[in-house]
């Protein structure tokens, strides 16, 4: 064929990109295209925030800019448009007289709706849309059990996959990308996207710069230069600093990094340096990521219901307390471990996995507030937001997802275990600096004299707790 449109979605990379490789094999020239979809920047249904907040909007822009630079370095370019893909992709196909369009397929409802709508609109002009599954470690077609019948719990699913499937090899980065002449168009600014910019706080764990180049640099730095993979399993529950965990999530979410490439680097590290529980554990975590992607194919939109995939069996009643939700979101609950994590999220777009589990449990279990508001708030704030990882983990934590046990996190004992010297809470709540750890984690235990002694007045310097959380844990 003469020309194919390659519609980049959450696969903003040239390495291991089957969609691009197939299009280049089938067509003489390709028209690489990225579409900023205004719907992804529209207001959330559940919270007064845009679905994509400033940190992720910036990361996506940087990723698209990097993709364009990498295409230019291979003799090509990237056409950038702003509009509904269901209109833009067919319009571009027609403008360049394309014979076919190629794109990544994604499992979640809104993405699939857009994809199916685009396919239908292209079909009206006689242009087929070829779709490729490219964002998981295991290919959906290689699962030992058809995806609609896979187990709903992680461990049996993981064991079956590890024993019965192989990870496919990565595709090479194409050396050249022949494109026709076109006016590539400017990237929309955050203003154009309707998003108010916001600077990342200097205290951020790392600089999440978007793009395949930065993603590969981060992988190189974490695995090879800092040599941290050998200790990943012991450090992954950390809270402070760049290297307690891989920090690859944002690049994986936008497809700047392919999970298969990460796994090949782990294999290489195991061959050249060391193979141990830690090196395996990074892949184990990538399998959690896969698990939620496949669960979304199986359960689809059920993940967004207030009773999640468990339906009436979950039997949960959620409160709609706007003021309590706002305190949680702002990091003003008066429970330092919750507040420190929420402030890190608000100021940087990142929060550790340990933090996410705790703040989600606090909102859903302790405050009993509709977990979907929490999930939507994360959706807006997280740089690494991924529909399946986010809503899947939230549903799990709220007891309406892939775990039928009702197990909450006790944020007080978690704080004392994972932040024993209160370094993390005081990093994000400097107003508590100087307090001994016991009071930094439970400031309500200070009487007035102690508050005066340490110069921290509850209700003035730091909020009084919104509920007696010690009593709540005693009662549950
Ligand atoms: C309530 C809640 C919401 C979450 N929302 C998201 C989200 O929107 N996007 C996202 O990528 N992750 C999400 N996670 C999973 C996890 O917290 C992040 O992937 C992780 O903290 C990112 O940091 P890292 O890359 O350093 O992780 P590492 O510990 O280095 O893990 C390596 C990779 O494994 C994957 N991974 C690890 N844990 C999980 C998990 N529980 N579920 C799915 N994938 C996992 C990620 O791709 C991660 O980059 C969420 C977890 C919870 C509890």
From TrEMBL:
Region (Disordered): 167-187
Keywords, in A-Z order: Chromophore, FAD, Flavoprotein
PROSITE patterns recorded: PHR_CRY_ALPHA_BETA
Cofactor(s) needed for function: FAD; (6R)-5,10-methylene-5,6,7,8-tetrahydrofolate
Site features described as Electron transfer via tryptophanyl radical, chain residue numbers: 318, 371, 394
Presence of keyword RNA-binding: no
Start and end residues of each Photolyase/cryptochrome alpha/beta domain: 2-137
Origin: domain of life: Archaea
Binding of FAD, residues: 232, 245-249, 285-292, 384-386
Co-factor binding comment: Binds 1 FAD per subunit. Binds 1 5,10-methenyltetrahydrofolate (MTHF) per subunit.
Keyword flag Nucleotide-binding: no
Family indicated by similarity: Belongs to the DNA photolyase class-1 family.
Entry function: May have a photoreceptor function.
PANTHER family for this protein: BLUE-LIGHT PHOTORECEPTOR PHR2 (PTHR11455:SF2), CRYPTOCHROME (PTHR11455)
Name of the protein in question: Cryptochrome DASH
């Amino acid at each position: 064929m003469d020309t194919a449109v390659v519609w980049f979605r959450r696969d903003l990379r040239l390495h291991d990109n089957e969609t691009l490789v197939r299009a280049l094999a089938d067509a003489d020239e390709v028209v690489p295209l990225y579409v900023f979809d205004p719907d992804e920047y529209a207001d959330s249904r559940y919270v007064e925030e845009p679905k994509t907040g400033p940190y992720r909007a910036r990361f996506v822009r940087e990723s698209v800019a990097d993709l364009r630079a990498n295409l230019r370095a291979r003799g090509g370019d990237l056409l950038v448009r702003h509009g509904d893909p269901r209109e833009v992709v067919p319009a571009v196909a027609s403008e360049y007289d394309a014979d076919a369009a190629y794109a990544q397929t994604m499992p979640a409802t809104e993405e699939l709706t857009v994809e199916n709508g685009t396919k239908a609109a292209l079909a009206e002009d006689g242009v087929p849309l070829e779709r490729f599954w490219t964002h998981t470690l295991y290919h959906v077609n290689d699962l030992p059990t058809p995806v609609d019948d896979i187990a709903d719990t992680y461990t049996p699913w993981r064991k079956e996959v590890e024993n019965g499937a192989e990870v496919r090899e990565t595709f090479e980065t194409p050396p050249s990308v022949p494109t026709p002449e076109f006016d590539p168009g400017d990237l929309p600014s955050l203003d154009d996207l309707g998003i108010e910019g916001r600077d990342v706080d200097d205290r951020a764990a790392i600089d999440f710069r978007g793009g395949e180049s930065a993603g590969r640099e981060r992988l190189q730095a974490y695995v090879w230069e800092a040599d941290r993979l050998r200790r990943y399993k012991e450090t992954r529950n950390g809270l402070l600093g760049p290297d307690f965990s891989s920090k690859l999530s944002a690049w994986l979410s936008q497809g700047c990094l392919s999970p298969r490439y990460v796994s090949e680097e782990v294999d290489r590290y195991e061959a050249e340096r060391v193979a141990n529980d830690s090196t395996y554990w990074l892949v184990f975590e990538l399998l959690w990521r896969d698990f939620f992607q496949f669960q979304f194919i199986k359960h689809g939109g059920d993940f967004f219901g207030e009773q999640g995939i468990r339906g009436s069996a979950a039997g949960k009643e959620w409160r709609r307390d706007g003021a309590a939700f706002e305190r949680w979101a702002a990091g003003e609950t008066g429970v330092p471990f919750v507040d420190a994590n929420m402030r890190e999220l608000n100021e940087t777009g990142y929060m550790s996995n340990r933090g996410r589990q705790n703040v989600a449990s606090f909102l859903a279990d302790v405050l009993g507030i509709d977990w979907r508001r929490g999930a939507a708030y994360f959706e807006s704030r997280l740089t690494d937001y991924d529909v399946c990882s986010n809503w899947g983990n939230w549903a799990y934590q709220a007891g309406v997802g892939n775990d039928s046990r009702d197990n909450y996190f006790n944020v007080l004992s978690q704080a004392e275990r994972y932040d024993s010297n209160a370094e993390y809470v005081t990093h994000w709540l400097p107003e508590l600096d100087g307090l001994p750890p016991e009071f930094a984690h439970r400031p309500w235990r200070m009487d007035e004299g102690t508050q005066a002694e340490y110069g921290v007045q509850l209700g003035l310097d730091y909020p009084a707790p919104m509920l007696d959380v010690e009593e709540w844990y005693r009662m549950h």
